[in-house]
Amino acid sequence: MATSIGAVILAGILSACSGPWASGPGEEPPADGGTFETVGELREALEAAGFECPEVMVPNRFKYASASGSCGEIGLGIYANGASLDSELAARKTYTGDTINVGKNWIVGTDAPDQVQEWLGGTIVNEGN
């Protein structure tokens, strides 16, 4: 009985730690990119995708994000709601040359948008266009 309860608890913990990202080649992430609760979860997903992101610096790179940070040149943003994300995207239309990945409640700014999309899903947006 104790073993069964332990297995159920472990399964619950592991499922709570998993994100919407693909866990390996051949697995498809959600087309809309799913959601992330924290910048830390988004960072973990990027590391699983092969990006080096051992530590998140906390400068707010995204004006309307409820939480954001960066790993070197990679910008990470989490949004509290669709309106905040839409405001961010509208404001960023004035930028030129940057490419970002957009999920249901997140943005990742990186120079490898195809790799992010392959693992996290979402949409690639070329800013300024």
Describe how the helices and strands are arranged.
Blueprint: H1 2-17, H2 39-48, E1 67-71, E2 74-78, H3 82-92, E3 99-102, E4 106-109, H4 113-120, E5 123-126
Antiparallel strand pairs: 1-2, 2-4, 3-4, 3-5
Précis, in short:
The chain has 129 residues and is of the alpha+beta class. It has four helices and five strands.
Commentary on this structure:
By secondary structure, this protein is an alpha+beta fold. It contains four helices and five strands; from the N terminus they run ααββαββαβ. The protein is 35% helix and 17% strand. A five-stranded antiparallel β-sheet has the order 1-2-4-3-5, covered by helices on one side. It is globular, with a radius of gyration of 16 Å. The protein starts with a helix and ends with a strand.
Order of helices and strands: HHEEHEEHE
Strand fraction equals 15-25%
What share of the residues lie within helices?
25-40%
Give the overall form: globular
Class of secondary structure makeup: alpha+beta
Which regions contain 5 or more consecutive residues with pLDDT less than 50? 1-18
Major beta sheet, specifics?
Answer: 5 strands, antiparallel
Number of helices: 4
Compute the gyration radius: what is it?
Answer: 16 Å
For the biggest β-sheet, the strand order reads 1-2-4-3-5
The rounded distance between the terminal residues' Cα atoms is: 60 Å
Mean pLDDT score:
80
Strand segment count:
5
